[in-house]
Amino acid sequence: MDDLKQDISRKQYVEQHLTTRLIGKPLYYYESVSSTMDVARQLVRDGVPEGTVVVTSEQKAGRGRLRRTWISPPGVVAMSVILRPTLSILPQLIMIASLAVVGAIKENLRLNTRVKWPNDVLINGKKVCGILIESEVKGSMVNFSSIGIGINVDFDPSKYPDIMQAATSLSHECGHDLNKDDVVCAVLQKFDELYLRVTSGGSVYEDWRDAMGVVGQWIRVKAGEAVIEGSVEAVTEGGNLILRRADGSSYEVVVGDVTVLKT
After folding, report:
1. How many CB atoms lie within 10 A of CB 170?
2. pTM for the structure as a whole
3. Which residue among 100, 193, 256, 261 is least enclosed by CB atoms within 10 Å?
């Protein structure tokens, strides 16, 4: 941690524009890190409070779900939010994070955005954000949860052939450059609002389900070596998908990669 250099000017900009009650207090804004999730884990060991946020515009070893590498070209903003939720709130963390991104984009950029189960945000069918959650749970106690959010803010997808068919960026979709730190502020504001709603006894489940619009779609799910197809009958409050397969049997999807085949 000692060799990491904070970007003081960008840190101050975000702090001056945030009006959150919990999220982003304190804020660490680094010029470059291996992964914001790695930094967050070390900060947890150091005893930082709930709501601490780590931000960077350069990740050298970012990671996504299922131990995949998260490609971070210039123009990507990565952040990790450190929380200490109760066990009952854990299933809603992915909902809060994805809705924070969707809400920030819709309200500030007016772009048509939706959630792709379980952890991506799409614009016009292409990925603009990925989310990763790592939690440490012992018995009925959650020691901490770290919510990693990577947003493609400002780059031209055509310059990256490996991802251009599947990914996009906010600037590409709205047709002009964006201030990355304004995006950070907007997402953290929405995150704060939604997390405090849940910790006060509310729920974001219905908003998340509606933001996916997946009910009624015929999908293919790949989970390890298994491939399952079916129509989505429901989304559970725990975040799982209930499928009705062609033979009439029901199947609950807990983890996997989803491809929509037809609506």
Report:
1. 27
2. 0.92
3. 261
